[in-house]
Amino acid sequence: METIELYRENKEYEELKIDFGTDLEDAVDELLYLKKQGKKAFCEFNGVVLDSETVTMDSAFLMITGRTKAEIDLINERKKEEKKLLDAIDKIPEQIKKGRNLIYPNHFQEWVNDVAMGAIGPNKGTVIEYALEIMEAIDYNMDMKNIVALYDSQKHESNESWNKELVKTYVMKYSKNGFPFYEAVHDGYWNLEECKKIYDIIVDNEQFNHESSENVDLVDSKRKVLTRIKRLQKREEKSIN
After folding, report:
1. Are 41 and 13 in contact (CB under 8 A)?
2. Which of 29, 35, 84, 193 is geometrically suited to a Cys-Cys bond with 124, CB 3.0 to 4.6 A?
3. Residue 2 above 70 pLDDT?
4. CB of 138 within 8 A of CB of 147?
5. pLDDT tens figures, 157-170
6. pLDDT digits over 71-119, tens only?
7. Quick one: which H or E segment has residue 27?
8. C-alpha to C-alpha distances, 53 to 56, 60, 207, nearest whole angstrom
9. What would you measure as the largest C-alpha separation in the chain, in angstroms?
10. Where are the domains of the chain?
11. What's the half-sphere exposure (Cβ side, CA atoms, 13 Å) at 162?
12. What is the pLDDT of residue 229?
């Protein structure tokens, strides 16, 4: 391997100055770009001389890190995921506490379990965090149009439609009156099983609403869901006959 002095003495080459904070990938990209421009260039990175005529991304990574770029990317991705997991686990107590103030006590143990599972799951607690945002908005009696806009603005790193569906499900399951929101963002066919589960949640919440000092109006939600159930039952009866 030629020394940096020999390259500097070679008038065919220009030296690429590496700014503080420039990463290896950017340095190699710049050398390869200069090569495409028909220029010969070199740079020194962490004491290693890289030559535009011979460098490749993998050769540079192997010389400087002892690993290929793909291997380094995999290590960095694992570190990133580990940090996300640790951050999500750190948020568990706060998410449990927030939820406790927004749900009825009969759902608390389930909430604790879902928060813990959400932290170690693929979305690393993001779905729970977003569900809490919606539940807080409902608790503050925010206008439904604004709540839907908030829901629409929530971005997921992956499985967007699936995770948004989970947010909707958690809000219905845990909010003291999640049905108006659930109905507002519902997209598609209502099925009988889904409506029966929702009705059971509303009836359960209604019981605790009466026992507490709160006055959450569940009558309209209960009526709407019951109407849907009856309509779907009639449709099923007709299809059987």
Report:
1. yes
2. 84
3. no
4. yes
5. 777 888 999 999 99
6. 999 999 999 989 989 999 999 999 999 999 899 888 999 999 999 999 9
7. helix 24-36
8. 9, 12, 76
9. 93
10. 4-66
11. 5
12. 93
